[in-house]
Write a structure and sequence with these properties.
Rossmann fold; 20 helices; five-stranded parallel sheet; DNA replication; 58% helix; elongated; 4 domains; mainly alpha
Length: 419
């Protein structure tokens, strides 16, 4: 059992989600317990690792109901749905005092991975969606359906009617990073990770915890897994990373506010960062440091000249240093200096490129995991959590790995970036 499973939230108050989502879940299950249910099923959707399955089990605990689960590791065709989920949904315990009370909660996990085919030989969950609809129509017990890709699910046969008979809750903890929910989420998950670290005797500081959060947000399960691996792998979140950020930050400040050009140049020749990284920091923060239109024009003109020199470094490599030295004199071009404190920003271009790379890697991981899960009837989350196995296979048995890639219809480039 993984660390994420060991520390799965056991009650609704432990879940890292908005109050609105929590209250909507409670209202839905209360309607069942009070015999006033309007919608027979509850759909929880959102990115993997944010706690959809945990929320289902916490809701069952709140209502005092056992869970009957059917997940993506099981074949979910018409026959198997009838044997397990349909029987559980239509029959209640004969010894219950109130025959109208539900006596179990049915969980259909990762329903977006139900893929139907026309033939049994192709391995699809033949008739699974139509039987899921029948379960929801006729159930005598509450049904929770979880999925990662809500819009992919809606494109399946019978999905729109399933949705119309369900309460839908998006589990995404925040929409944008500048909203209050983001601060609440990061603060909450930081506390969770710190508590786990203390209990598991993992020596990690607050800065390193924040690094794990930033690298995986909003995937809580991935954060916990990274915390577990922290002590046995190269530290990507530690002192070296912090020193580098502080170093470039002070160089940026000295460039804008320093009076001694020679001192600035001396510091630049000692820096670990490359010239392009330094120039992007200066370019990003010019409008925060200078507000006068004439100063803005002059400083941008100067950095444009520096960029021309740096861009021609492939013809003559010595021109790279010219770009750095021209940029270092940017304060000479500004007549009205800012006397107030300025918080410098990380270059947005680099952040966007890093996010694009991260999204590309995430897409390829999900693509690989989805296809592998489809042929092995295993959940996407399970495959994603065991990607290390396929990386080892790639290193140790190229022939088997190539065969698997061909079987899945995935290119070498895609599998390489699915890390």
């Amino acid at each position: 059992m993984s660390l994420a499973d060991d520390y799965r939230p056991s009650d609704l108050n432990s879940l890292l989600l908005s109050n609105e989502a929590r209250q909507a879940m409670i209202s839905w299950i209360d309607s069942w317990m009070n015999h006033s249910e309007v919608k027979n099923s509850l759909i929880l959707w959102g990115q993997q690792g944010i706690g959809k399955t945990s929320a289902a089990y916490a809701l069952a605990s709140y209502a005092g109901l056992p869970v009957v689960e059917m997940n993506a590791s099981e074949q979910r065709n018409k026959e198997s749905m009838k044997k397990i989920a349909l029987m559980a949904s239509q029959y209640r315990n004969l010894f219950d005092d109130d025959a109208r009370m539900p006596d179990k909660l049915i969980l259909i996990d990762e329903a977006d991975n139900i893929f139907e085919s026309r033939s049994r030989s192709s391995g699809g969950d033949t008739g699974g969606m139509s039987e899921l609809l029948e379960i929801i129509k006729n159930t005598k017990n509450p049904v929770i359906i979880t999925m990662n890709d809500y819009y992919s699910f809606k494109s399946k046969n019978n999905a729109r009617e399933i949705v119309s008979r369900s309460v839908e809750i998006e589990m995404t903890p925040y929409k944008r990073k500048n909203e209050v929910n983001y601060k609440i989420f990061t603060s909450g998950v930081h506390s969770v990770l710190k508590n786990i670290a203390i209990k598991e005797n993992i020596h990690i500081n607050d800065h390193e915890i924040d690094g794990i959060i930033r690298s995986n947000e909003p995937d809580i399960r991935a954060m916990i897994n990274d915390l577990y691996l922290y002590s046995s792998r190269e530290n990507d979140y530690g002192e070296n990373s912090r020193d580098k950020s502080e170093s470039i930050y002070y160089l940026t400040s000295d460039t804008f506010r320093g009076n001694d050009y020679d001192t600035i140049i001396s510091a630049l020749y000692k820096m670990d960062e490359d010239t392009d990284f330094y120039m992007k920091w200066i370019d990003e923060n010019i409008p925060y440091e200078y507000t006068d239109p004439v100063d803005l024009k002059n400083t941008y003109d100067l950095i444009s000249i520096a960029d021309i020199y740096y861009g021609n470094r492939f013809k003559n490599f010595s021109l790279a240093s010219y770009g750095m030295e021209i940029t270092a004199g940017i304060s000479v071009k500004a007549k009205n200096r800012n006397d107030h404190y300025v918080k410098y920003n990380f270059p947005s271009f680099i952040k966007k490129m890093a996010m694009r790379k991260k999204n590309f890697e995430l897409y390829n991981t999900i693509n690989f995991a989805g296809r592998m899960g489809a042929i092995s009837h295993t959940s996407t989350a399970t495959i994603s959590g065991n990607m290390w196995f396929y990386h080892i296979m790639k290193q140790k048995d190229r022939k088997l790995y190539s065969f698997l890639s061909t079987l899945l219809g995935i290119t070498e480039k895609q599998t390489h970036s699915a890390k």
